[in-house]
Amino acid sequence: MAVREIPMIIDGQAVLSQSQEWRDVVNPATQKVVARVPFCTAEEVEHAIASAHHAFREWRKVPLGKRMRIMLALQALIRDNTDELAALITEEHGKTLPDAKGEVGRGLEVVEHACSITSLQLGEVAENAASDVDVYTLHQPLGVGAGITAFNFPIMLPCFMFPLAIATGNTFVLKPSEQDPSSTMRLVELAHEAGVPAGVLNVVHGGPEVANQIVDHPTIKALSFIGSTHVGSLLYKRAADAGKRMQAMMGAKNHCVVMPDANRSQAINNLLGSAFGAAGQRCMANSVVVLVGEARQWIDDIVDAAGLMKVGPGTQQDADLGPLVSPAAKERVLGLIETGEKEGATLLIDGRNCQVHDYPKGNFVGPTLFTDVTAEMTIYREEIFGPVLCVVNVETLDEAIAFINANPNGNGTSIFTNSGWVARRFETDIDVGQVGINVPIPVPVAYFSFTGSRASKLGDLGPNGKQAIAFWTQTKTVTARWFEPENVSSGINSTIALS
Question: Which residues are designated catalytic?
Answer without folding.
Answer: 283
